[in-house]
Amino acid sequence: MTNELIPDDDLLLRISDAFDRDLPPVPGRLSSVASEAFQWRRADVALAELLFDSAQEDLVGIRGTSTERRSFRYAAGDAVVRVHLTAATMIVMVEPPLSVTCRVESGAGDGSTKEHRTDELGELAVDAPAFPLRVEFDLPGGTYTTPWITG
Q1: What is this structure's pTM?
Q2: What distance in Å separates the CA atoms of residue 99 and residue 139, rounded to the nearest whole number?
Q3: Rounded alpha-carbon distances, angstroms, from residue 150 to 1, 19, 117, 123, 129
């Protein structure tokens, strides 16, 4: 084992391979330690707390549609950030409404990052980036990022 850092692309491939296998659930303590370790990787960016993931919850009152949608809600300091993904579109909403800079990093292929700005209502709609992806926000209380969204 070496002390060299693993490039992000290699790390994402290793993580993706791990998800292809049936593994036992991650213990809560291990998840907590991993989150704390992430804070040290980029000390200037805080990890947003996942509050809701539509893949983990039964959506009551939602009719099936031909378009599959995935929704997330994150706590980021004093703000709540919602991310809605379809095959064609990504919608971001910041509450309370704030015009903030956000960067969408796509881990696919070249690992591109695109910078956007929410409107005065805290909303942004862009073409859906390729998976895996994460969204980083410059909020008044600091910079936050979502965990990697893999699909």
Answers
A1: 0.69
A2: 9
A3: 27, 10, 23, 22, 11
